[in-house]
Sequence to fold (818 residues):
Amino acid sequence: MQNAHRCLFPRGCVLIFVSAWWLAPLHATEPPAQSSLAQRELEKRRAAIEEAQELLTKGDQAYQAGRYADAVAAFSGAREMLPNSPLTAELRNAATQRFAQASVAQASALSRNGDLAAAKTAVAAVLKPDIAPADAASLAMSAQLDDAIRSNPALTKEHSGAVDAVRKLLYTAEGSYNLGQFDAAKKHYQDVLRLDPTNTAARRGMEHVASAISSHQKSATDQTRAEMLNQVAASWETTVPAPSLDGAALEPGLPAASASTFVPVANKLDRIILPSVILDGVSLQDAIDLLRLRAGELDTTEVDPARRGVNFNIDLGDESSDTGKQIRAIRFNLRLANVPLSKVLSYINGQTRTIYTTDDFAVTIRPRDAESKEMFTRSYRVPPDFLTSMSASGAAATKSDDPFSAKPAKGLLAERRGAVEVLHEQGIEFPQGASATFNPANATLTVIHTAANHDIISQLVDAVAKTEPVMICVRVTMISLKETRLKELGFDWLLSPTGIGASGGIPGTQAINISGGTQGTGSSLGDIRLPAGQFERDPLTAGNRSGDEAIYKDSIDGFIENSNKVTLDTITPPRAPGIFGLTKVLSSSSVQMLMRGLNQKKGVEIMTSAATVTRSGQAASVRSVREMIYPTEYEPPQLPQASNNNTNVGSKPAAMIVTPSHPTTFKKRDLGMTLEVTPTADDAKNYVEVTLNPSLVDFDGFVNYGSPIFGPPDTNLLNNLNPLASRTILTDNRILMPVFSTHKAATSLSVADGATIVIGGMLQDRVQTVEDHTPLLGELPVVGRLFQSKANQPSTTAVVMLVNVQLVDPTGKPFNKH
Fold:
């Protein structure tokens, strides 16, 4: 912080000033010439003293404000103005003291800013022999400047300026950061690093900016993710059918209801009906003025009053031309009733030997013989696709009406047409000297032609330029739904042998044993736990199907599901899981019941959507696929040729090494969504002709066409009474082949803008029902349900393809909702 010193004006200055003021009366007795000279000298000295006093005051103010250079200049000037005389000595000493004090302060400031040379110069100016060579403060400052410890010799003025600039940029960057202007803050921190590449504060500031931007981007990620999930959820929403519209509401060729209400002048001329026209001895100008007034009164085509009426422009050339004078001098009479404005203009043209042309905003009237053969050059700014759009319209206009005419042969490359050919198709002739060129680099059409043809070309260019570009967004959504429900409830019974009539019966008779039956061709009930000491299962309900036996997985999905399971021939398909069981143990027998049941629901919902945006008439495709490489050919397994001749009882088979089947040939298949589309919008931008080729390929799984390879059975009869059951699997020998589901469509249709239609689908409903019961027991009323097994599995599959077509402008907004 700079020290502010207040300089006080010495008291003796007032006395000196007063003494100098009264010097004139002391010499009043001198001669008149000397008196006049002395008076002028006194006035001069008085003015110098007054000016010195003003400089001292300004110097004090500059010193107080910290402007030491200005203070030094003011004090030095005051000291120079004061004469070195006894009368001004005290005031001169005060000025010298102030000069020394300000010079020391200036030298200190310059030293801090790295300008040591200027600081030494400022101190040296004080230590001059004729000023203040013994000033203590100046000597101390001079010693400090020469001391390398107290004054850094490496400090330069440029470095000090860079430090100040860095400090200001850091404050500015911090302010921008606090205002949320992260890009501006980052730019200021980068400016700091350009001045000071090792500035830590700038790097920390950039870290804070990057952290703030990262936090915003995380929020933006969450917001975008939420919106995209919302779009996925909204894709399941069914479209509400459009309300019934009048047949003419979307009739091809008519403007849409939401189209612009702009009415061209040519339409107004045909729609405005004049009830009566009475013109007697009027000129062309008077007649046009009357039509302009009446058109504004009778225009019912515009809703806005400011746009009603018709603009007329009379172009008769130079006022000095003979043709213009003749037309202005013509007077004519006209009486009509209930005629369109266009017919009135035609009659007026016939009377005045003129013609009229129109554009979208005005009617221009010219002399009939105004057409000149003189050619001049004019350039037009046109859209980049000017030739393409004009060629399409010209090709449509020149299409042959003979359906049996031979079609010209076309090459593989598209025909390129120049500006002359395109304009010639629009009816513009190009005689000798006329030409037209199109520069695609700056989209400029340069034409050399007559004035009349330039008017036609101008209208063509305006019509093409005013055609707002439109793109077509085609979105194809495929929805696949699959639902499976399984309900099963059944009972299994086991009854071990039970004697009836063993005691208390007829003398001389034996007890009758009642037990369950055998498994036979039914399924095993091996999952029912037997009481202690019982080894045989005597089932009553072995013939009732349950689990996989009841609901057959005979579809390809079931085949795929079971392809990964390797089961031995002795293992039967599992029954449904048991819910709870009951066991009653008698003296030498038992009765067991196990309730089995299932209630399962499974649903698979898949929605795939592909969208593309293209221009009208241009083909587009979008592919969202993953490549899958799968085997198509396998080498057969290789088995060892050596045979095991060891037939001794109790011996174990030797170990065998088997090479399973392995793939040798592979193929690639694209999985996912592929969409090829060619949309074409009609002229009114209401309907779109769409040619679609959507395709959805999905991988369902692998089917195992191989079978396990077993080793030889164990012949050790002492350890295993069933050698076939002792076989071991040497290799699974899987031969896997993929199964793909393909949904595709190829169609051409017309879709209204913004509409969604269904172009294809599939609905499949499959129901399996099982109702098994044990004979006799299952037919009993009420109790018979305990000897029945019932299962029901309905499976429904639905696939729907939806197409949504919407016209959009180059900004992506709906075209017909402007």
Notes: The radius of gyration is 55 Å.
